[in-house]
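COURSE: Structural Biology Practicum
ASSIGNMENT: Worksheet 4, Part C
STUDENT ID: 0417
INSTRUCTIONS: Below are two proteins. For each, the amino acid sequence is given first, followed by its C-alpha cell string. Answer the questions at the end about the second protein only.

PROTEIN I
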Amino acid sequence: MISTIFNFLAAHISAYGAVFIVSMIPLIELRGSVIVGTAFGLPWLNVLLLSIVGNLIPIPFILIFGKKLIAWLKTLPFLSKFTSWYERHLMNKSDTIQKFAFYGLWLFVGIPLPGTGAWSGSVIASLLEVPPKKSFPAVICGVLTAGIIMTLASRGVVGLFQFLS
C-alpha cells in the first residue's frame, strides 16, 4: 500500500507536493514525509521545513475538535471498531502525558515510534481536555524533535545505501 501511495504521488504531483501531503496524513505524518523527501533526493533542509509545516497545519483543528471527531467517528459503522481501539490505545498512554504534562506530550509526539506523532498527541490532548494554549507548544516541540531525528536517521540510511552500492 505504501508503494502504491508513493508511486501515485510521484506520478501525479511534484516531489515537494508529495512531501507536503504525506506530512499531513494521520499516522504517517512527518515521519513518512521525511523518508519520501529523502527518497526523492530533495535537499534535507527543504524536506524538513516542508514536513514540519505540513504536519503542523491540521494540529490546531485536532486540538480543538479532536474529542468531537473521535465521538463522531465512533458512530460510523465502518470506523467505529478502529476508532474505539485507537482511543483506548491513546488513553493507555495518557498517564505519561498527564504525569509529565508539557514534557510528556513533547516526548510522545517527538519520539518517532508507531502510534505516536502530532495527530495522536493532539487527539490525546483533546480527549484529556488540555487547553490548546498549553498543548500546541508541546506538539510543536515534539514535531521539531521528530523532524530532526527522522532527518538524521533517513539521511544516514540513504547514505549507507549509497555507500554500499
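PROTEIN II
(use this one for the questions)
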Amino acid sequence: MKNYKVYVLTTLVFSVVYISLAFIAVQFIAKQSVILLLENEIQSGKQRAKQISMISANALAAHVDKAIVVGGIQKSIEDINGVNMFLSVIDWSGNIVSYPDITKVGTKDAATNAMVTNVKKDITAEDLYTYIDNYSMEEDALEASEVVRLDAIPDSDLIVVTHINLKNVITKFDNFKNRFSVIFIILGLLILVILFGIIRYVTNYYYEALEQKSTRLEDSMLNLSKLNASLENYQKNIAIEKERQAKEEEEAIHEGGNSAEEEAIKDLPKKRLLTYIRNELMPVSIEDISYIYLENTITYIVRKDGKRFTANDSLDQIYSSLDEKLFFRANRQIIVSIYAIDKIIKFGNNSLKIETRPTSEIDIIIGKNKASSFKQWLDL
C-alpha cells in the first residue's frame, strides 16, 4: 500500500482520539442508564412499601391477628429472583420479621440495624449511583444488599425496609458498560473503515490532480522552451536581415539610385525617435531602444543602457512609425524591442511575462488574447 504512512498515522490519531472520547461516552451513557434504572426502581420500591404499609395498617386496625398480617407480607415478598429492589419487615428492636429468605426471619440483620438510624427518608438516584460506583463487592457476597428506605407501619412496632440488591444492580451496571463498549468498538471500526475509504479516495484524487498539474507544467515548460528558442532564432534572423538591408541601402547609395528607390527609402521605418531629457531635444536611435511605455499619460522611452527619455507622441503614433519586425505592442501600456527581450516566462493560466535587459520598471504582461499573435510574431 503506497500510502501506508498516511494510513498508519490516521489509525494512530483516530484511535487515540476515539478511545478517549469512547471512554468518556461509555462512562456517561452507562451512568445515565443506571441512574434512570435506579430512579424507576426507587419509585417502584417506594410505592410497593407504601402499599404494604397501608394494607398492613388497615388489617391491624381491623383487629386482624398480627401473625396473619406478617404471614401475608412474607408471601408477597418471597419472589425476588432477578429484582433490583426487595422489601423486608423488621420490628423496633431490629429483629427480622419478614424477609425474602425465610431462613433469616427471627435473626438480626447487622446492615439493617446499622442503617435504621442513618438512612435518609428519601434517597436520590444520584446518591445511590455514587454509593454503588464506589462499592467494592467481594466474590462471596452473593446476597449483598443495602437499605435505601424505611417506612413505619402506623400503630405497630413494624417497619417496612426497602433494600437494593447490590449484586443485581452492579451486574447490570457492568453489563451496560460492556454492551456500550462493544457498540463503540464496532462503531469505531466501522468509522475507521469509512475513514480509510475517504482517505483513499481523497489521496487518489489528489495524486491524480497532482500528476495532471505536473503534466500541464511540463507541457508549459516545453512550450516556453520552444518560445525562448524561437526568440533567439528570431533575434538572429532580424540581425541578419538588418545587415542585408544595410548592404542594399549602401549599394543603392553608391549606385546613385533613382527616384523610385529614393521614394522607397523615405517610406522605410524611422531610424531615430526625437525625445526630450529635461528641456533638451535628444534623438534616440531605434537600435538603442529597449522598450517604450506609457505612465500617467506621459510616454517614456528607455534605452538599452537604462536611461529614460520622454516623447510628445502617443504610443499609437510611435508604434506606427516603428518596424513591426523589431517591436511588439505587448499591451496598451508598453512596446517592447526584440533585442531587449531576455526571457519569456509563464504568467497565470494563459498569459506570458517578458523579462527585459535592462529590467523593466513595470511588468510586461502579454494577455491571453495577444499571446497567439506574439507567438506568430516570433514565427512560432
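ANSWER KEY EXCERPT:
Q1: The radius of gyration is 51 Å.
Q2: Helices lie at 4-61, 66-77, 110-116, 125-133, 166-254, 259-266, 315-320, 368-377.
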